[in-house]
Structure to design on (1319 residues):
């Protein structure tokens, strides 16, 4: 579109001049396949100082309007193709049509190059990448993201084939599920390099903190090459940041929006002014004795407010300097969003009279969240000459979250009494305020050097830093009890409800902080040459070394109500009059098992070979990964586990065949072996309480890493520009998959589960009918795994539990059917685009329930989103709008028919304007 | 070795009494003097310890003390242990504290304040025996900020706690779970729990007997039986009889009243012959208990005043003690064998001395004596399957010896 804009400008200007002119236009295509080549450079030079340069639009078209008459030389250049020059004579009022067919340079294929990537920021580039890649890749371009209803990487990814997003309650953490496999089986890269995670538990990066406007494209690799890191069984998400452009770009965007939930209710706001950023021990040293006055009240003083509109501001600047040798690109994106959820969150417990679960608690939750994301990408590249190039990329992401959680929980059984008749029971009201700061900083320096015609050496050095600070997460618990009192002497007669006062139960204050540092060094050597008359050989070998360190710190204080002279607990009126004592005045900093340091060193070497025949690519190689990892708790435990180290090596072969049935059609078959390492905290035997599903997880030092054999078959058809049809099947066998097993109470533990098998079917297509297009994908998945369940034998009195009954079930998080269908409308002349996106996500296993035959299932969801944009007449400005969750779809969890969770987030919308030079 | 000696001694004494009452023949059992295994030298101890605390000596625990699996920590009679620095005792092996009526064992903190040392954390112990021991001022937070129980067991082992005193502790005093088999007899638990905590809290699959205990002024419940709502099997099955439960359950407030005895979440209790006076609530059989198999009766309920007015924090809450003998939110109903007071003075159990204080703080000084005066309605009205008297102090001498 950028291209056509400049043409129109020229047109407009030309219309004002009354000299004799003509125009030259045409289409640039691949001479052999007829495929159009968008983004090709078309230069025209002639007498009277005419010297213009344009690039072809998405349809491969170019136009030079209003040219003075005369002789011209027209040159077309495109990466990977031999340049073409034509001599042209333009006559008066002529509209000369010059179509150019370009030949692929065989030279390009048999020798190494430091340049030459088709921009994946356009859809056509994305399709090219999918078609030409050695492995199975799905790519979504910046342009497609811009026009979609999505504002962050998590939203975008869920529209890709075989992907769903794992969102825990509140929607503030989002990780990719590729082909139905839990986020643990996937890895996340930025520009091809693994990045440190700011999450206190896992090794993955929350995708919701990555603004989609910073992205040039997202690639999802579903099969691995030896040159890629081997710890992805489901696949690899590579977020490719925007790259320096060939010509100057200035893009600015701004939008505002709102979430419907705050039309319907207020936002629970708390003041962050008095939050201590450091815990008392961090501030004053380990000998400090905390006093009641050390703990602020204002962050537990909740007020109802109406949030300001959501806003997004983005700016992208790019230009080349020093005779095009230096490329600079800076992109900044700032998002401030307010969202919330209203949910029912019940807890299930086994019915004591029959083998089925009932509810032990009935809870209502109201979350109000402000999330502020800021991302800055800086890209510098310097081309010394055609043989040497260095690139520096820095990605900085900051995400701030302020969330209030109000949970009202009524115990139906247990909890000091439970419920007698509907409306009664012990009621706990929990107010939590939490703020967190997440930082991801990733600096990468890489170089490419042509050593000789056939040898390319490339190297990369990366420093990656990630941190999360959660200062003073404050949680106030109150309790009361609702009972009935009979209004007559008849004990079966009428009654009324009586409610006790609300008592001040406890306040917890938690300071949590974790920090990751990764140091990476990579080097590869590529050899490329003609092997025989029809075959080209490419050999690549290289290695990686990564040293990671992480620490995790936690300091917790409990505040108990002061008591009266008779020792009775305090009635709660409001936070400002509540009186407390500090129960553990020295905090837990010196003791907490969540205080640990860990390291992970990975060394990898690989060798791979590719032989390309005109209709067949054969690819094979092997990668060796050696992992050395471990943790040490900060405190010595005389009788427990104080730390561990693990060492393991994996030999990961990979083989692929791409059979090019025609220029538009590929048939691929691939095999690769890959691994998945346990999440860091999963080895640490400390309890972590999850707010999102009210469970506790306890690490397991005996976990081993998972290893998988992966088989894929895919048919690809690229009929026309931007169109595609991909159909594939796959099979995976995973040894020692890690799943959460129930141990007791509400506690779960990660464990290895024998061998799991996964198979599935994928289908993706894009088809245009004039201005209307349809794009979509469908994935079917099936996985199976066995786990131990128990049931109760009621033929005994008292009944006896029967443990260890094997039950077959799908893997946790695996969805059966996923369908995305989008209806696209585009009118390039009017610069009008619209997209209506429908998504169906089938049911998936959310959590394993200990009783035989019962598990928590996330229920199927149907979601609808809409987006549209329209270029304004001056062609520099575009107005756009995005609507998400138009159907107000609820997220529900059920155990068979028992409703456990139902969460409503409601729809949100935004309108904005974009400027592009 | 030591156990054998004491059993022999006990058996000998029993035989002596028996013989005395029957005839004039005098038998003297002579037991060998077996030296203590691994005697521990008096003074400061901490870290990994095994062996025997020997009679008459004073020990100071200066930091957390751990008894490894396979090791035993034993105490002879008349040992005094002072715990400083908020330390706790972790038992993974065997705990065997055996005092005598005349020479009890004593564990207390150096500060003598409630919640100032960590008690016996026997989560994964092999066996726990505490007889004739004073255990005072336990509880408070552990270094992770969690409240500490005084005696905590979470393993299917034998736990014998007999004839001991637990005074001014915090949180749960005796908390046993995960299938422990318990014998809790003739103990006195006083003024414990700050604003929470049960005196005897038996959970998930515990079986055994709780009898002849006195529990006075506990923050929460005197004897609580339950399983876990999420893990209702195996069931907790306990006989709770002949306990005297007075003035318990007030400090947690109205929203979480404490009870004399409660049976919840799939637990089975046999609740007989208890004297229940001035508790916030008397006997609570929750609807989620195993109400089919829970049996109760022959309990005495008394209120020394009609209502108690709680004036905490400016509120004025009037609570009818008598109305809460069988609280309305439970399914327990008065039994014909029960003795239920209908007015002050009616069915008064006639304690030897009772100041009538309803709510008192954790650690309050008390001098009540819950022996029964002659003429007490509790005498001879018990379920003779357990004892023909009610309460902890019975006329047959089987009851509490404090």
């Amino acid at each position: 579109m950028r291209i056509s804009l400049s043409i129109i400008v020229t047109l407009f200007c030309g219309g004002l001049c009354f000299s004799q002119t003509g125009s030259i236009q045409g289409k640039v295509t691949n001479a052999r396949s007829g495929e159009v080549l968008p983004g090709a450079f078309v230069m025209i030079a002639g007498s009277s100082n005419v010297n213009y340069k344009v690039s072809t639009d998405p349809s491969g078209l170019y136009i030079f309007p209003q040219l003075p008459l005369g002789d011209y030389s027209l040159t077309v250049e495109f990466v990977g193709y031999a340049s073409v020059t034509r001599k042209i004579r333009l006559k008066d009022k002529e509209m000369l049509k010059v179509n150019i067919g370009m030949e692929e340079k065989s030279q390009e294929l048999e020798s190494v190059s430091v340049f030459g990537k088709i921009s994946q920021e356009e859809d056509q580039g994305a399709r090219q990448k999918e078609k030409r890649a050695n492995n199975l890749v799905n790519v979504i371009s910046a342009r497609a993201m811009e026009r979609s209803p999505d504002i962050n990487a998590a939203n975008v990814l869920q529209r890709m084939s075989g992907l769903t997003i794992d969102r825990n309650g509140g929607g503030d953490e989002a990780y990719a599920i590729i082909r139905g496999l839990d986020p643990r089986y996937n890895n996340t890269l930025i520009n091809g390099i693994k990045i440190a995670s700011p999450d206190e538990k896992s090794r993955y990066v929350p995708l919701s903190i990555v603004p989609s406007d910073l992205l040039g494209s997202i690639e999802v690799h579903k099969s691995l090459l030896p040159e890629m890191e081997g710890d992805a069984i489901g696949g690899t998400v590579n977020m490719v940041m925007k790259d320096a452009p060939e010509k100057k770009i200035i893009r600015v965007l701004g939008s505002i929006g709102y979430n419907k939930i705050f039309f319907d209710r207020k936002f629970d706001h708390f003041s962050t002014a008095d939050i201590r950023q450091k815990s008392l021990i961090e501030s004053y040293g380990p000998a400090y004795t905390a006093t009641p006055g050390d703990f602020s009240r204002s962050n537990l003083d909740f007020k109802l407010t109406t949030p300001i509109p959501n806003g997004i501001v983005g700016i992208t600047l790019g230009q080349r300097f020093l005779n095009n040798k230096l490329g600079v690109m800076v992109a900044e994106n700032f998002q401030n969003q307010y969202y919330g959820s209203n949910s029912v969150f019940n807890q299930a417990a086994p019915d004591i009279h029959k083998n089925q679960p009932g509810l032990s608690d009935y809870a209502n939750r109201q979350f109000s969240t402000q999330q502020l994301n800021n991302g800055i990408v800086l890209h510098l590249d310097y081309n010394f000459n055609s043989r040497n190039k260095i690139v520096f990329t820095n990605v900085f992401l900051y995400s701030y979250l302020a969330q209030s959680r109000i949970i009202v929980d009524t115990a139906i059984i247990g909890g000091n009494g439970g419920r007698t008749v509907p409306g009664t029971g012990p009621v706990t009201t929990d107010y939590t305020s939490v703020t967190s700061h997440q930082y991801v900083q990733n600096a990468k320096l890489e170089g490419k050097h042509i050593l000789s015609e056939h040898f390319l050496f490339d190297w990369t050095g990366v420093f990656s830093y990630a941190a999360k600070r959660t200062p003073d997460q404050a949680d106030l618990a109150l309790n009361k009890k609702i009972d009935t009192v009979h209004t007559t002497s008849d004990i079966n007669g009428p009654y009324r409800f009586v409610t006790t006062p609300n008592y001040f139960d406890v306040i917890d204050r938690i300071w949590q902080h974790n920090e990751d540092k990764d140091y990476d060094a990579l080097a590869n050597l590529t050899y490329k040459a003609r092997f025989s008359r029809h075959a080209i050989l490419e050999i690549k070998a290289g290695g990686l070394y990564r040293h990671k360190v992480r620490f995790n710190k936690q300091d917790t204080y409990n505040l108990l109500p002061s008591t009266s002279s008779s020792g009775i607990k305090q009635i709660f009126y409001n936070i400002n009059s509540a009186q407390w004592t500090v129960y553990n005045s020295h905090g837990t900093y010196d003791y907490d098992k969540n205080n640990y340091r860990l390291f992970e060193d990975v060394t990898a070497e690989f060798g791979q070979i590719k032989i390309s025949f005109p209709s067949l690519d054969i690819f094979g190689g092997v990668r060796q990964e050696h992992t050395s990892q471990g943790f040490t708790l900060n405190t010595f435990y005389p009788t427990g586990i104080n730390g561990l180290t693990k060492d393991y090596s994996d030999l990961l072969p990979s083989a692929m065949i791409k059979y090019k049935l025609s220029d538009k059609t590929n048939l691929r078959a691939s095999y690769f072996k890959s691994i998945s390492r346990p999440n860091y905290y999963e080895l640490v035997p400390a309890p972590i309480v999850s707010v999102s599903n009210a469970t506790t997880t306890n690490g397991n030092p005996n976990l081993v890493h998972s290893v998988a054999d992966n088989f894929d078959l895919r048919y690809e058809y690229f009929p026309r520009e931007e169109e595609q049809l991909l159909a594939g099947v796959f099979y995976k066998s995973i040894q020692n998959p890690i799943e959460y097993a129930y141990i007791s109470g509400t506690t779960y533990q990660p464990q290895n589960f024998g061998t799991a098998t996964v198979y599935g079917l994928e289908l993706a297509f894009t088809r245009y009918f004039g201005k209307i297009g349809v794009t979509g994908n469908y994935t079917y998945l099936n996985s199976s795994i066995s786990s131990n369940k128990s049931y109760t034998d009621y033929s005994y009195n008292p009944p006896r539990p029967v443990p260890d009954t094997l039950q077959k079930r799908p893997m946790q998080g695996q969805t059966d059917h996923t369908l995305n269908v989008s209806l696209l409308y585009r009118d390039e002349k009017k610069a009008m685009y619209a997209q209506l996106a429908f998504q169906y996500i089938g049911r998936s296993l959310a959590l394993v329930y200990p009783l035989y035959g019962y598990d928590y299932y996330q229920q199927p969801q149907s979601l609808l989103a809409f987006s549209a944009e329209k270029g304004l007449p001056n062609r520099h400005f575009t107005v756009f709008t995005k609507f998400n969750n138009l159907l107000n779809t609820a997220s529900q969890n059920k155990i068979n028919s028992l409703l456990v969770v139902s969460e409503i987030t409601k729809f949100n919308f935004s309108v904005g304007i974009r400027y592009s030079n | 070795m030591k156990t054998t000696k004491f059993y022999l001694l006990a058996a000998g004494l029993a035989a002596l009494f028996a013989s005395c009452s029957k005839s004039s023949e005098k038998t003297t059992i002579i037991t060998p003097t077996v030296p203590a295994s691994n005697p521990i030298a008096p003074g400061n101890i901490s870290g990994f310890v095994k062996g025997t605390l020997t009679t008459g000596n004073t020990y100071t625990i200066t930091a957390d003390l751990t008894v490894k699996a396979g090791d035993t920590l034993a105490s002879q009679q008349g040992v005094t242990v002072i715990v400083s620095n908020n330390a706790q005792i972790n038992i993974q092996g065997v705990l065997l504290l055996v005092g005598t009526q005349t020479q009890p064992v004593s564990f207390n903190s150096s500060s003598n304040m409630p919640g100032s040392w960590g008690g016996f954390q026997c989560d994964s112990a092999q066996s726990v025996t505490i007889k004739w021991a004073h255990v005072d001022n336990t509880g408070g937070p552990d270094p992770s900020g969690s409240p500490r129980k005084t005696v905590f067991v979470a393993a299917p082992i034998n736990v014998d706690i007999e004839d001991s005193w637990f005074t001014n502790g915090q949180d749960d005093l005796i908390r046993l779970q995960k299938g422990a088999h318990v014998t809790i007899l003739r103990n006195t638990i006083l003024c414990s729990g700050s604003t929470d905590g049960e005196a005897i809290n038996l959970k998930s699959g515990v079986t055994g007997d709780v009898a002849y205990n006195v529990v006075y002024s506990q923050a929460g419940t005197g004897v609580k039986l339950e399983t876990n709502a999420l893990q209702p099997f195996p069931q907790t099955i306990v006989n709770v009889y002949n306990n005297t439960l007075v003035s318990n359950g007030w400090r947690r407030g109205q929203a979480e009243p404490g009870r004399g005895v409660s049976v919840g979440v799939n637990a089975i209790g046999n609740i007989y012959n208890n004297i229940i006076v001035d508790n916030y609530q008397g006997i609570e059989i929750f609807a989620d208990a195993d109400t089919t198999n829970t049996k109760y009766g022959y309990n005495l309920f008394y209120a020394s005043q009609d209502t108690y007015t709680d004036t905490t924090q400016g509120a004025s809450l009037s609570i009818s003690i008598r109305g809460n003998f069988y609280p309305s939110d439970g399914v327990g109903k008065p039994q014909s064998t029960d003795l239920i007071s209908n007015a002050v003075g009616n069915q008064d159990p006639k304690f030897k001395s009772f100041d009538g204080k309803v709510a008192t703080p954790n650690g309050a000084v008390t001098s009540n004596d819950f022996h029964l005066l002659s003429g007490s309605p509790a005498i001879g009205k018990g379920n003779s399957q357990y004892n023909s008297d009610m309460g902890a102090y019975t006329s047959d001498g089987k009851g509490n010896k404090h």
About this structure: The domain at 2-104 of chain A is CATH 2.60.40.1120 (Immunoglobulin-like).
